[in-house]
Amino acid sequence: MSRLADLESKREQLLTESRTALERSQSLADCEDVRVAYLGRKGKVTTLFEEMKNLADGERPQAGRLLNELKKKIEAQLEVKKSQLASQEIEGKLQAELVDVTLPGRPARLGRLNVITQTLREIYRIFGLMGFRVYQTPEVETDEYNFQLLNFPPDHPAREMQSTFNTTKPGIILRTHTSPGQIRVMRAFYPEPIRVILPGKCYRYEQITPRSEIQFDQVEGLAVGEHITMADLKGVLTEFARQMFGEKTQVRLRGSYFPFTEPSVELDISCILCGGQGCRVCKGSGWLEILGAGMVHPVVLRNGGYDPERYSGFAFGMGPMRIAMLKYRIEDIRLFLGNDLRFLEQFG
Q1: What percent of the chain has pLDDT over 90?
Q2: Distance in angstroms (rounded) separating the CA atoms of residues 119 and 113
Q3: By C-alpha distance, which of 62, 45, 43 is closest to 3?
Q4: Which residue would you say has higher pLDDT here, 101 or 259?
Q5: What is the pTM of this model?
Q6: Per the annotation, does 139 bind a ligand?
Q7: How far apart are CA 78 and CA 313, in angstroms?
Q8: How far apart are CA 38 and CA 20, in angstroms?
């Protein structure tokens, strides 16, 4: 057998051996071992290339062509095998980390409305059924609107009841109540009849205790028109109390004093804890005070643009925090703004 024929026989043998070795390969590492064994610097194909020096000059081109074809075939087999193994590896990972997309997802944890927001929305709903609409007014007010136009002259002693946050600009303050909205609403809607509630935050420079905060919500109510009487006020407040606290709730009006109403009253409801029998919460009286109210003072009507000889009206103001404290038996007002989830999650 000629040396060229012997080289060609060895070529076919290596091609078969490499194919068999690759078929047995189970990983990319095994493929690398086959590559080194056949195509590496000391591999079997490289060894055959070295035998070409023993061939006659006329046989070397043909031998070179045969060995290059061998090298290319083994490289092609390697690429096919590597591709197969890579696909198998990816498939294996997919199966191992399989996610069943038909399973229901984990439910997202939803937030909750603060109990004050819930109470405000309930107040809006109740008065909305009675024809009142919500009207927003500024939290930063002038001394004129917050006091003077509401019948609080600069030297009026009632100002001492409302510790005021002043600003660096003279005459500009944080409102101490929502009552300035009465003047703004009347001046905006004169001479039309009015029926609005004015919710918003108020600020007073007070000590923070279980019963008081420096920032609190308030809801003001105002109705202005012809022939409005105290009977209308009582009817509206009675309906509100029974909608908020239950149909069996009893109400009473007690005389009081506010500079911007005349006459002025406070509304009491029968204690929702003891049913009027007397307990620690109502201090044995059987009654709980929930808001202040009265007929709009003629001076305030005139400052709003309405002639008190022709028009009359009533106003009331309540604290949603106090309403919520009574309704849900909460004893510390600081819990509302404390961000304690143990408290907040009770009101889902």
Answers
A1: 46
A2: 10
A3: 62
A4: 259
A5: 0.68
A6: no
A7: 95
A8: 12
Residue 97 to residue 196: CA distance in whole angstroms = 61
Three-state SS sequence of the chain = CCHHHHHHHHHHHHHHHHHHHHHHCCCHHHHHHHHHHHHCCCCHHHHHHHHHHHCCCCCHHHHHHHHHHHHHHHHHHHHHHHHHHHHHHHHHHHHHCCCCCCCCCCCCCCCCCCHHHHHHHHHHHHHHHCCCEECCCCCEEEHHHHCHHHCCCCCCHHHHHCCCEECCCCCEEECCCCCHHHHHHHHHHCCCCEEEEEEEEEECCCCCECCECCEEEEEEEEEEECCCCHHHHHHHHHHHHHHHHCCCCCEEEEEEEECCEEEEEEEEEECCCCCCCCCCCCCCCCEEEEEEEEEECHHHHHHHCCCCCCCEEEEEEECHHHHHHHHHCCCCHHHHHCCCHHHHCCCC
Amino acid identity at 94: L
Residue 48 identity: L
Give residue for tokens 């409102």. 175
Report the range out of 101-105, 145-149, 323-327 with the highest average pLDDT: 145-149
